[in-house]
Structures are given as C-alpha cells and as structure tokens.
Fold:
Amino acid sequence: MRVAFKAGFVKRSLQRYGVVAMVLLAGCKVGPDHTEPELPASAAWHSELAEGLTAAPTDPDVLASWWTTLGDPQLSALIERAVAGNLDLKTAQSRIRESRARRSIAKGAMFPTLNASGSATSRRTDTNVGFDSHGEVYSAGFDAGWELDLFGGVRRSIEAAQADLEGTEENLRDVLVSLLAETALNYVEVRTFQSRLAAAQASLATQSETYELTAWRSQAGLDDELAVYQARYNLESTRSQIPTLRAGLEEAMNRLAVLLGEAPGNLHRELAEPRAIPLPPDEIAVGVPADTLRRRPDVRRAERELAAQTARVGVATANLYPQLTLNGSIGLETTSLRDPLSERTWTISGGPRLSWPIFDPTIRPNIEVQSALQEQALIQYEATVLACLEEVENALVAYGQELQRRDNLRQATEAAQAAASLAQYKYQAGLTDFSNVLDAERSLLSFQDQLHQSDGTVTSNLIRLYKALGGGWTSLAVVPEPKTAKQH
Structure:
C-alpha cells in the first residue's frame, strides 16, 4: 500500500511539473532572428558575351555534368574515379558526419536526464563494553533532471548546429565543384603537353632533314659551312625544348593521379596514347548573376555560417536570464537482498530549482564577442558574393579573348607553314639564303606551339567558367543520414 502511495505521488508530481514544463517551453527565444541577405539584383553580366555564349537560362542537367559537353569519354571516366577516390572529398564527407553528431548533442539538451545508482555497504560496530554488530545495507535509486529552455538558449544552439551542418554540406558541394574543375583542367593540360610534344617532335624531324640537306650541300660545294652551323643550332634548340615538355607532361599526369586518390604514376600507361585536346561546344548558356549566386555552394555556405553565428548571439544572450531546472529522485535503502521490502526506507524528492546570474562580468562581453563575429560573418558573406561575381566576369572575358587569340594564331600558323615551305623550296633552288629557311622554321614551330597552348587554354577557360557558374555539385548527393539515427 505504501509503495502504491509513493508511486502515485511520483506520478502526480511528474504530471504537475510536466504541465508547468510544457507551458514554460513555449517561451520566447532571445537574440536576433536570422534573415537571409538580399543578393545583387543585376539582370545581366557586365562583360560582353563572346560568340557562342548566351544569356539564356542554364540547363540544370547540362550544368550538373558539364564535362560531358566536351565529348571526351576518357575525361568522364576520370571524373567518376575522382568523385569516388579523392581524399579532400572524403574529408568533407567526414565533416558532415561530425556536424550531424554535434547537432544531436545540441538537441540532447532539450530532454531530461535520468541517472541510476546503486551501492552495497558492509557495517561493523565495536564498543568498549563488548557489544558489536554487523550487517549490510543496500541502496538503489533514480535521479532525474530537466533544464527548461525558458528563453531559447538551447533552441538557439540547435539552430546554430543545424546551420553548421548545412554549411558543411555546402562545403562538400564546393569541394566537389573544385575537384571536377581541377580534374578536367589537369586532363586538358596532359593533352596540351602531348600536342605540343608531338609538334616539337615533328618539327625536329623536319629540321633534321634540313640539317642533312645543308651538310650535303656544303660537302658538294653548293653552300658554305655557315648554313650547316645554323641548321645545327636550330635543330638542337628544338631538341632542347622536348625534355621540358616531357617533364610538364609527367607532372600533369602525376597531379591528375593524386586528384583521383591514386599514387603518382598510376595513370601514365592509361594516358600514354596522345589524344586531341577536347573542344568546347558551339553554344554555352551562362544565365544571369542572380541565378549563379543562388547556385554557388561557397555563397550558400557563407550564408549558413552567418545564420549559425546569428543563433550563437541568442545563445549568449540567454545567459542573462534565469534558468529553471526540475529535479526529482527516488531511492530505496534495505538491509536484505532476499526480501528488499521487509526492512526498507524510501526516499522521494522533487521540485524546481531557479538560478539567475545576478553578477557575472563575462556574460555581456561574450554577447559583444558573438555580435562582432556575426558582423564579421555578414562581411564575409558580402565578400564571397563579390568574389563570385568577379570570378564569373573574369572567366567570361578570358574565354572570349582567348577565342579571338586562337583564331589569330591559327591564321598565323597557316601563314608560317606556307612561308616555311616556300623558303625551303627557294633555298633548294638556290634562290634565297638559308637564314630565311631558319627564320621560317623557327617561326612555324613557335606559332604551332602557341596554337596548341591556346587550344588548351580555350578549353581550360571554359572549365573555369563552368566552375565559376557553380556547375557540377548536383552530380553528387550529400552523404545520407544513417537510417538508425533518430531525427528530433
């Protein structure tokens, strides 16, 4: 009967304080509420769009897998391997799991805590009159506590943890955008070095024939030794460029392997066969600034970091106000484990506890610290927006200007090829000096090398443009939440 009475007392107490808790939990949240900053409302890019670029809305599917527009299956395969193996991407995924755990910690403060305890004590009493006693005492009990979130400090901390989680998700997307771009850029660099190397080797073969011709003509008395020496240093000059090109090719392959999460040298056999530099599509939609800013993961991350810091101002502000905790405990003490209810003592206690920091010189300075950090987060957000716009504007200019430069180099290379053929013909016919052949061959090799570099630069600038537009991150889903995790 007494046990039933005590159980009823505990139940009524919990009901009474539970109702009070529900009322108090509906209290206010101190501190500022986050409002998303407005983005610049520019309707068009400042830079004049080059031929092939349009202000039409970007196709989400095209932007999600922009590398496929280059029409290179090997590049697509390498990008898939980079997404699966890149270590920076795995680190970003691990940070998401860390942020989810931190959010769970913050949510845990909303719920009561319950602790169980037990002990066994042996007692012996001796007196000077010869009386002694011996026995064991066993005790067990439960303690519960619940700090009520009267002024929203805990809820603000949950808001901050949620915003931090969303920021790490945007960071993963930003890492992915950079990874895709870097993988494609290094692949294009590999193909560019291979094209330049092939052109240098072809020029070397032509100059070797020219050197043999001048040597024959000198031996036949048709030319002096000056032409032989000139042909020789022209030949060796071209040969000296080949080691530098091979070194650049090796470095590009090694960088590409590391991006894929593989050891340097793993891609050499796979990429040994030279292939043409991927060419950009005929038409590219770039959209408008507002769309790009909404899509860019770094801008979205900066906005989430601002939201998290705004919530932390509320966490600091809540420390100015009282804290109410509901405490309760129930305990049993007995001298027998066989029949614990025969000789026992029940202990039941419960009630609220109010605490209020009347004087704490650190609270208001901490609010000022968090407010200053919020201001810095806002400034960083604005700086990120401006940097994003600058990156796109520069990418648009670079792509358009390199297209024009490539057209000019193509015409110059065609003219240099014709000049070299004509100079060679006139020299063999004895109608011109060998110095003209020398100049023509050097000019042809220079223009061919510049043209191959420009082909690579055009495609690289397109890749940088896609990166500046925030393309590619939607091709990878954020790490899914564990199915066993409880969502509060």
Notes: The beta strands are 53-54, 113-126, 132-148, 284-285, 323-334, 344-355. Residues 1-11, 13-25, 484-488 have pLDDT under 50 and may be disordered. The first strand starts at residue 53 and ends at 54. Residues 197 and 243 are 9 Å apart (CA to CA).
